[in-house]
Design brief:
Layout (H helix, E strand, L loop, with lengths): L2 H11 L5 E4 L9 E4 L4 H10 L7 E10 L7 H9 L5 H7 L1 E10 L4 E9 L8 E3 L9 H11 L2 E3 L35 H16 L1
Parallel strand pairs: 2-5, 6-7
Antiparallel strand pairs: 1-2, 3-4, 4-5
Length: 206
């Protein structure tokens, strides 16, 4: 789908929105539209409800981790925490997380339109607006991104872990995730079976 006219239409109907076309150089050529989180909900509602667009189905939502090229110094980190109005270049320097939505129109038989949203960093400012109230199919997929990448989707009706257990503290799909070397911290129903098996073997060998 050609994004230039879609970008122009959104800019004309949603004052103040900031949009950027992100080119995809791969053979599929599925370019995407980067949208600003402040206007994301209004953009989503327009895409769903505009008579000529009617993007009524979100097929999938994926997360991406973009770490900083190199870790900034402590002074820079402190400044980033204190300055809530830093520009996009500072955000890119700190690294960011991304949520990518693939939209189709079942009514009009067109798509995909691919939307991207970016957090300001990978630390404390990882909030993005949930689009689940617009497309119900985004529910579990936003939960998965929250679980595995750490994006906090504000306005999600039931934001909680979906794959990892509640006590898990890390984000396994981040690029800098370090796999633990001790797997005994994860209790499962198999632990009781293992104890019974070990007891059985000790009895038969004695």
């Amino acid at each position: 789908m050609t994004l230039e006219p879609l970008k122009s239409e959104l800019e004309a109907n949603i004052p103040g929105c900031r949009l950027e076309i992100i080119a995809n150089p791969s053979p599929c050529g599925q370019h995407s539209l980067l949208i600003d989180p402040e206007h994301a909900f209004a953009i989503a509602m327009y895409l769903r409800d505009a008579p000529e667009l009617r993007f009524d189905y979100c097929s999938n939502v994926t997360g991406i981790d973009w770490p900083a090229p190199e870790a900034p110094g402590k002074v820079a980190l402190k400044e980033m925490e204190e300055d809530q109005e830093q520009d996009e270049a500072d955000c890119a320097q700190a690294g960011y997380l991304e949520a990518v939505y693939h939209l189709y129109s079942m009514e009009k038989k067109h798509g995909p339109a691919i939307l991207r949203m970016r957090t300001c960093d990978r630390g404390k400012r990882v909030q993005l607006p949930s689009l689940t109230p617009v497309w119900r199919s985004a529910d579990f997929q936003e939960r998965e991104i929250f679980d595995l990448f750490g994006v906090v989707f504000e306005g999600h009706p039931d934001l909680r872990r979906i794959l990892m257990w509640d006590e898990f503290k890390d984000y396994p799909m981040r690029r800098d995730y370090v796999e633990p070397d001790d797997y005994e911290y994860e209790p499962t129903a198999h632990d009781e079976v293992l104890r019974k098996t070990m007891h059985h073997h000790s009895q038969t060998q004695s």
